[in-house]
Amino acid sequence: MSRNIIAILRGVLPQDAVAICEEILAAGIDRIEVPLNSPEPFDSIARIVDAMGDRALIGAGTVLSVADVDKVNAAGGRLIVSPDCNPEVIAHTKALGLQSYPGVMTPTECFAALRAGADGLKFFPGDMIGPVGLKAVRAVLPKGTEAYAVGGANPSNFKEWVAAGATGFGIGSAIFKPGDTPAEVRAKADAIVTAYDEALA
């Protein structure tokens, strides 16, 4: 079962990446991003893709430029997540056949992203937008638009977000913080999957 959860491994080290991702995948989360402001992110992405690229959707977060998209693609990543809505980055991502999830807050940004070809929208920062804000924007979005809540979404409020129209979540520190062991990440990932499944039941 593939869940609409993207695990965000900000700060992960290349030598630790595969062991951590194996635990995340075993817990039932098969979408993983390494933010580009992590140490040697392209090395981490390449190692993860080599180990499990056939079993999971791997890519990068904090992707801000067309050049970054090319580097992620060269490392084997298939997922491009950004904190902002940059039509050039979205269009280039789609031209390479990769998946695009740009960051948005306003209806203007949402529609600009969709017109540029985005696969879905990353509502960020989620704790500023909140379920109330998402619900209001959701009313004008095309039916079927994927809406990921990122930043402020966690197991304690998944149900609230889903009720407001969220179709997925990007989870950062609630699943991984630098220094976490694979076992610690697995315990957090298990709790996230349980809460997600209950919220969507």
From TrEMBL:
<keyword id="KW-0456">Lyase</keyword>
<dbReference type="InterPro" id="IPR013785">
    <property type="entry name" value="Aldolase_TIM"/>
</dbReference>
<comment type="subunit">
    <text>Homotrimer.</text>
</comment>
<protein>
    <submittedName>
        <fullName>2-dehydro-3-deoxy-6-phosphogalactonate aldolase</fullName>
        <ecNumber>4.1.2.21</ecNumber>
    </submittedName>
</protein>
<dbReference type="InterPro" id="IPR000887">
    <property type="entry name" value="Aldlse_KDPG_KHG"/>
</dbReference>
<comment type="similarity">
    <text>Belongs to the KHG/KDPG aldolase family.</text>
</comment>
<dbReference type="GO" id="GO:0008674">
    <property type="term" value="F:2-dehydro-3-deoxy-6-phosphogalactonate aldolase activity"/>
</dbReference>
<keyword id="KW-0119">Carbohydrate metabolism</keyword>
<comment type="pathway">
    <text>Carbohydrate acid metabolism.</text>
</comment>
<dbReference type="Pfam" id="PF01081">
    <property type="entry name" value="Aldolase"/>
</dbReference>
